[in-house]
Amino acid sequence: MKGFAERVATVQEYYFSAKLREVNQLITDGKPVINLGIGSPDLAPDRMVIDALKSTAENPKAHGYQNYQGIPELRIAMAEFYAREYKVTLNPNKEILPLMGSKEGIMHVSMAFLNPGDQVLIPDPGYPTYTSVTSLLGAEPIFYGLDLEKKGRPDFEALEKLDLSRVKIMWINYPQMPTGAAGSKEILIELVTFAKKHDLVLVHDNPYSHILNPEPLSILAIPGGEEVALELNSLSKTFNMPGWRVGMLCGRADWVEAVLKVKSNMDSGMFLGLQKGAIAALSLGKNWFTDLDELYQNRRKLVWKMADLLQLSYSKDSAGLFVWCKVPEGKSPDELVDWLLYEKNIFITPGKIFGPAGENYVRISLCMPEFKILEAINRIKP
Ligand SMILES: Cc1ncc(COP(=O)(O)O)c(C=O)c1O
């Protein structure tokens, strides 16, 4: 064998892919590990969603290959969700592409726009996939800072000092993972102006828009956003469906078409049952969101308690599925994470995996029932 492709050396196995093997080994060895590391909603989707999947699976005619753009009813349900939740009008035939989760979209959007040597603006800290996909394609990640005192506003002043002539894509993500910075309409307006000025493709990754976030935002609702931006969205967190792998890409017809051109060569349409389930989820009413909000609010209060016990500092003004905690000066976040895992059997995520700005932080997930978070608190109590 003449060696792997050079791109394999540009990335490492995804942190959780490797770490969860270790956590699972501890569990196999009989350790009662409480996993507050990963943001995988632990509750089931709505009953109607499961019924739609089940009844479709019973239909012998439902098992064939599906359309690359999904069934029209799915795209219509996605368009209605955008109209209802964000007041954004999308043409379901041209401006929406169903995805197998938004993570897949990050690769396909990047493949549609990037050449080797192009540069990509990536939030630091941020979702590691933006960086690894950029590197896999031979493009160069350029990190930008966020002001956590100002709802995660990008450091535009520092950005303006850079030579941006080779930058093609700018990734943005509000509510921001891992910091929970909610963003604001004003920040999105600034971003649209910035993208226009520097001729960038702004891609808003929006999977947390309905988690502990009273005002879901879409970049496509901002005047001019539809010219310079694409948006990824996902059913994973909003509808407790992370394992289903359903997401969507929304925005300009010509840009969505270019992504479809790439994607249709990589995979085929989703199983019809998943599409029918997704339609049922997208049409859920306000109660779904208020229940979800209450659930995560209660859990978050307990996680705050846990953070207090560990003498961590955090902002109460945040959104999304995590609490982003600063480790006190002089203490090592790595030692804290290892002590929690090996001595207390509690898994939390070190902030450094989200970029250099995450070095002094840890991230605690809200995807555990209250009794488990209480148990974690009891294990930590002196
Ligand atoms: C910021 C961000 N974007 C995208 C994703 C991927 O979500 P999915 O592929 O399940 O839609 C995640 C998942 O954790 C995330 O945190």
Automatic annotation (TrEMBL):
Regions crossing the membrane: none
Enzyme class: transferase
Family label: Belongs to the class-I pyridoxal-phosphate-dependent aminotransferase family.
UniProt EC number: 2.6.1.-
Domain called Aminotransferase class I/classII large: residue spans: 32-380
Superkingdom as given in the UniProt entry: Bacteria
Family matches, as Pfam families: Aminotran_1_2
GO MF: pyridoxal phosphate binding; transaminase activity
Annotated coiled-coil segments of the chain: none
Protein name: Aminotransferase
Annotated organism of origin: Algoriphagus lacus
PANTHER family, sorted: AMINO ACID AMINOTRANSFERASE, L-GLUTAMINE--4-(METHYLSULFANYL)-2-OXOBUTANOATE AMINOTRANSFERASE
Keywords: Aminotransferase, Transferase
Required co-factors: pyridoxal 5'-phosphate
